[in-house]
Fold this protein.
Amino acid sequence: MKRIRKGDQVVVIAGKSKGQQGAVTRVEETGVYVENVNLVKRHTKSNPQANQPGGVIEREAPINMSNVMLFNPQSRKGDRVGFKVLEDGTKVRVFRSNGEAVDA
């Protein structure tokens, strides 16, 4: 089970986008993609066959998972994530600060 999943609200804790927050759009081995965070400019050539225009395109770059924290709505800050096994045997993610379940 992953600590950070697609759709989670996260806060960036290191790097040039420090302090920004947003929803995770994609999780890969190289890192996580957060919407409107860590934007880079990419100079692309036009491709008429794929109907792609050329020019300077701004897109999201991956951020290492160690540089993001899950956003805790109760404390309004980034929080570490742990795991807990419930009585019925299901494994859930919990916030380390208050022990509340992340997945409601």
